Amino acid sequence: MHYPFWYVPGLTSPMWIAIVAVIHVYVAMYAVGGAVLLVFQTRLAYKTRDKEYLDYLRRHTWFFLLLTVVYGSLLGIGIWWTIGLASPLATEELIHIFVLGWAMEYVTFILEILAIFIFFYYWGRLSESDHLKTGWIYAGAAFGSLVIITAITAFQLNAGNWRPENGFWAAMFNPQAIPQIAARTGGSLLLGALYFFLHSSLFLGNHERLRTRVGRQSANWAMIGAALTIIGGFAWLLNLPASGEAALVGAAVLNVLMTIIFLLTAGVVIMMYFGPIRNPKWLTPGFTILFFGAGLAATGTGEFIREAVRKPYIVHNRVLGNQIRPDEIPQLRNTGYLNGGVWTRAYISHKFPQVMTTEGNEPQSDTRIGQIDGEKLLNLPAEDRRLIGQTIFMYHCNDCHAVEGYSSVAQLTRGWNDDMIYNLVLNLDRFHYFMPPWSGTDAEALLLTEYIQEINHPYPAGLQQGLEEAR
């Protein structure tokens, strides 16, 4: 309510966050897990004096640098851009609560950039010990970044009983922090190994000895990662808030996705054991592409589930899905949803000055924006009421629902009459506990009802005919 809305037809703006964030996670997790595998194998190559192994690892570092630093950094900027547009109040909340955390994150990011550039560009020019120290500094900074970012996003899912007076560290060590850090660390090691398998199969196709060695060393770390992922995943389930548990159990698609992620993870572990550990010759391009795709699918599915169970919140107990704070609801129900936002009140004042009043209930003056008189809104012509209903929809509903497309309101209310829609609007959280409560007046509920009634689809004609015949 404190910011203008961003409408993305068919997809909804939060889905852009999901798309950009998941792609970024694929790279960010490789930056952590791949760094550990890279430095560990470089140490092993130095120890065994294996020049061919070192040459390959240097080529892999170039690929690693391009993907994690160049591409990953651009995606990081993309995340800030999308969350600032799609979830501005939640972004504001996380910035204010975690100011120290973001400062720490910027330090780790600078360390990452410096360390990986030195590690690659000074390869062969530093002593072995200094070269490895630089690599471990990079790996440590990447892991530090994972810890900070994961703790902040974990706070969105379960803030526990946190209050502002509890301070920064209490927010960082929220109930979901350690479980998600464990799961993300394990996933990073798994995904890092899959990147190594894919790269080595493509660039070491005729070098069986090296391909076998890279595969086995990567797989050993991947099995550790699998154990951490499983432990972290169960701890994640145990530390879900009541709203998260309800959202997980009540959404059929999430139950299907939970089954899919379990099967994909089990499949990756089995393939890991029977492939690179027991039969390194299986690491052909075809096998590793399939392997890599399964890992990306499992990671993306896990990220989708993690985000989906936050409903009805964007930040647990702090910001609701429609960009308002829970403690604002009573006031908005009393004075009006449109009156509660700077942008909405200015818009209505500009388009419909006749519905505005000053504090003394006098007609709106030219120099001052007063309050919106909700009853006067109902006296406007039908087209104007539709425009106001659309405005309420964009601010109150648009963050989760498209008109047509993803979670389409026009489809979800297909065939509903006015009374059904009106009762739904007034009791959103009662109809679906993962929806935010209605946060406006009865008059505004009527305007939203009229808009939804106009856009929703009719009851399927053939089905209606069949039911009437059955009666």
SSE class: mainly alpha
Range of helix content:
over 70%
Rg, nearest Å: 27 Å
The CATH level-2 architecture of the largest domain is identified as: Up-down Bundle
Apparent shape? elongated
Strand residue percentage: under 5%
Instruction: Give average pLDDT, whole number.
Output: 90
The count of domains is 2
CATH class of the largest domain: Mainly Alpha
Summarize the structure.
The chain is mainly alpha-helical and 471 residues long. 71% of the residues lie in helices and 2% in strands. The radius of gyration is 27 Å and the shape is elongated.
Blueprint (SSEs and pairs):
Elements: H1 13-48, H2 51-86, H3 88-97, H4 99-121, H5 128-157, H6 168-172, H7 177-203, H8 208-238, H9 242-250, H10 252-277, H11 285-308, E1 313-315, E2 319-320, H12 329-335, H13 342-351, E3 356-357, E4 371-372, H14 374-377, H15 382-396, H16 409-412, H17 418-426, H18 428-431, H19 442-455, H20 461-470
Antiparallel strand pairs: 1-2, 3-4
